[in-house]
Amino acid sequence: MIRNYLHWFVGTYGFSNSKEFLLSLCPSFRYNIQSVTIPFSLLTGLCSAVFGIGPVVVFAMFVAVLVETFTGLRASHKRGEPFESYKFSRCIIKVAVWLTLVFILNSFARDMDARESWLYSVGSFFFDSAKLAVLTYFCVEYVTSILENLSVIDGKPKDALISAIKDKWSVMINLLKNKNEK
Question: How far apart are CA 42 and CA 114, in angstroms?
Answer without folding.
Answer: 25
